[in-house]
Design a protein that fits this description.
By secondary structure, the protein is an alpha+beta fold. It contains 18 helices and 14 strands. It folds into three domains: 140 residues, Serine Threonine Protein Phosphatase 5, Tetratricopeptide repeat (Alpha Horseshoe), CATH 1.25.40.10; 70 residues, no CATH class; 132 residues, Thrombin, subunit H (Beta Barrel).
C-alpha cells in the first residue's frame, strides 16, 4: 500500500514543486517527459546547491527516470535538499523513511520530516501523514486523524487526498460518519484533476446511484476515463463495458464524444479555488478581447498579462456557453488588434499557426508558436461549429487565435481530443486531432453585441515567424482566479 502511495506522492511532487531560478529548461523537459534531458539539466544545478534541483534529481533517481535507479544516491540528494529546509524533499524523504523504501526504516524520523513539511503548507506531506494515521505507520492508527490530515491536504487541491477522504467518508466507521454525498463531491474534485482511482470511484457511484442520482451515461464516462489509465492488471475496462451494454447507441456515442474531449484541470488549478490560465486576443481598439467561455467560468477575478503589462484587470462582458466563446474588456486601449479573414474562407489542407500561452508556469513565460494545417471543416460527429486542425495544443492554448498564413483569424482554439479516452473507447490512439471554433461564430457574437472588428484579405503566403511576431502584440495570457 505504501508503494502506491509513494508513487502518487512522487508524481505530485514533480508537478507541484515551486519554480526556482534556472529551472525553466528542466520544467520544459519534464513536461515533455524527456527525463534524460531533465537529469542532465538538473545535475549542475544540484551540484551548485539548488535545493529544488537536488530534490527533483532525487525524485528522478529514485524512480529510475532518465537515469539508472539508485535509491541510495536518491536519498543522498534528498537529504541535501532537506538540510536546506526544502518542503517537497522533506515530504518525499519522510515518506521513504516511514515505508523503509530505499532507506533504513525510521518511522519516527519520517513522521518528523513530514510534519516539518506540512508546517510549511505542503499538501503532499499532509497526504502522507493521513496515510500514516490510516495505516498506523509512525502514528497511532486513527481514521479520525487520517480524515483530518486528508481534509487539510484535499482543501489545498491534492487529488490523492481528495480521493482518500472520499473513501473514508464512503465507508465510514471508527469515528468517521458515513456521508456518501460528500464523498462523491471529493471524488469529483479528484476526478476532474485526472486521478484514475477517483474517476473509477465516481463512475461506480453513478452506476449504483449512491451519494448521487443514478446516471449510467455519467458512470460510463468516468469509468471510460479511468480505464484509459488503469494500473497494470486492473480490469476496470470490464466494468466500463458492462455499463456500456446498458446504454443506447445514441447515449454511448454522445458519452464517448464527451470523454474524448475531456481534459483534467492543470496542475495548480483547483475545481473550486486556485487559478487557471488560457489565452485571449484583442479584436478592437477599445480593449475588447475574445477567449473561451470555459476559460472564464466561475472566476472571482480575471487578469491579463502580455503586451499590455502584467496582471491587468479585465471584466467578463458576455459568455456564450453553447459556442464556448466569451468577450472581455480592459479599462484601457488595446496595443494592437487581430483581423478576421474575409473571403475566400479557409480550406482543408491550408496551413495555420497557433500562438498562445500553454502550460503556464512550466514552459517559457512568453508566447509559444506551433504550426499545422486544417484537417476538416467540421469537428467531432460532424460539428459544423468547429474546424479540425493538426497544430499541437496544450493546456493554456484555449481561447487563443487560430491564424491563417496571412496572420488573419480563422478560428478560436478550443480543445484537443483526449487520446487516452479515445483509445479506451475505440482501441485506436488519435494523433494531432485538435479543434478551433470557427471565426464566423466569433464575428456573430461581436455583431450581436455591437462590437466593431476588422476584416482583411488573405494571400496565405506569410512566414510563421512573421505571423507569430505580429500576434505577440495582440494576444494575452488570461488568468482566472477562483
Amino acid at each position: 500500500m505504501w508503494r502506491s502511495a509513494l508513487l502518487v506522492l512522487f508524481l505530485s511532487l514533480l508537478a507541484a514543486a515551486p519554480a526556482h531560478a534556472g529551472m525553466d529548461e528542466v520544467r520544459a523537459s519534464l513536461s515533455r517527459k524527456d527525463y534524460a534531458a531533465a537529469v542532465a539539466e538538473l545535475r549542475p544545478l544540484a551540484e551548485a546547491g539548488n535545493a529544488e534541483a537536488e530534490s527533483e534529481l532525487g525524485f528522478l533517481t529514485f524512480g529510475g527516470l532518465g537515469v539508472s535507479r539508485d535509491p541510495e544516491a536518491a536519498v543522498q540528494w534528498l537529504r541535501r535538499a532537506v538540510d536546506q529546509g526544502f518542503a517537497p524533499a522533506q515530504a518525499s524523504l519522510g515518506a521513504l523513511l516511514v515505508a523503509g523504501n530505499g532507506v533504513a526504516k525510521d518511522e519516527s524520523e519520517g513522521v518528523r520530516l513530514l510534519k516539518a513539511s506540512a508546517d510549511q503548507g505542503n499538501a503532499e506531506a499532509m497526504f502522507s501523514l493521513g496515510h500514516c494515521a490510516e495505516s498506523g505507520s509512525g502514528l497511532p492508527r486513527s481514521m479520525v486523524e487520517a480524515a483530518r490530515w486528508y481534509r487539510m491536504s484535499a482543501e489545498k487541491g491534492n487529488a490523492a487526498s481528495q480521493n482518500a477522504l472520499g473513501l473514508l467518508l464512503w465507508k465510514g466507521g471508527a469515528g468517521v460518519p458515513v456521508d456518501r454525498t460528500q464523498a462523491v463531491g471529493w471524488f469529483e474534485k479528484a476526478a476532474l484533476r485526472g486521478l484514475a482511482a477517483a474517476q473509477y470511484n465516481l463512475g461506480k457511484a453513478y452506476e449504483v446511484g449512491a451519494g448521487v442520482p443514478q446516471n449510467l451515461a455519467d458512470a460510463y464516462f468516468w469509468l471510460s476515463l479511468a480505464s484509459a489509465q488503469a494500473p497494470p492488471g486492473v480490469k476496470w475496462s470490464a466494468e466500463r463495458d458492462a455499463v456500456a451494454a446498458r446504454l443506447t447507441p445514441q447515449q454511448l456515442g454522445q458519452t464517448q464524444q464527451k470523454a474524448a474531449l475531456f481534459h483534467p484541470l492543470p496542475a495548480g488549478a483547483a475545481a473550486h479555488g486556485g487559478a487557471s490560465h488560457a489565452t485571449g486576443f484583442f479584436v478592437n481598439a477599445d480593449g475588447t478581447l475574445l477567449t473561451n467561455a470555459h476559460a472564464v467560468a466561475g472566476c472571482s477575478a480575471v487578469t491579463l498579462s502580455g503586451s499590455i503589462g502584467k496582471d491587468v484587470p479585465a471584466k467578463v462582458l458576455v459568455r456564450d456557453e453553447v459556442n464556448d466563446l466569451a468577450l472581455l474588456r480592459t479599462g484601457g486601449k488595446a496595443p494592437a488588434v487581430a483581423s478576421f479573414r474575409g473571403d475566400p474562407g479557409i480550406r482543408p489542407g491550408d496551413g495555420v499557426v497557433v500562438v498562445g500561452f500553454p502550460l503556464s508556469g512550466v514552459l517559457s513565460g512568453g508566447p509559444i508558436v506551433t504550426e499545422g494545417s486544417v484537417s476538416a471543416l467540421a469537428g467531432v460527429k460532424g460539428d459544423l461549429r468547429t474546424l479540425q486542425i493538426t497544430a499541437p495544443l496544450q493546456q493554456g492554448n484555449s481561447g487563443g487565435p487560430l491564424l491563417d498564413m496571412s496572420g488573419n483569424v480563422v478560428g478560436i482554439v478550443s480543445a484537443k481530443l483526449n487520446a487516452l479516452a479515445v483509445a479506451a473507447a475505440t482501441g485506436d490512439v488519435p494523433q494531432n486531432v485538435n479543434f478551433a471554433i470557427k471565426a464566423s461564430l466569433a464575428r456573430n457574437l461581436l455583431e450581436a453585441n455591437a462590437m466593431p472588428y476588422t476584416l482583411a484579405q488573405s494571400k496565405d503566403d506569410g512566414k510563421p515567424a512573421d505571423i507569430a511576431e505580429r500576434a505577440r502584440s495582440f494576444i494575452v495570457s488570461v488568468e482566472c482566479k477562483r
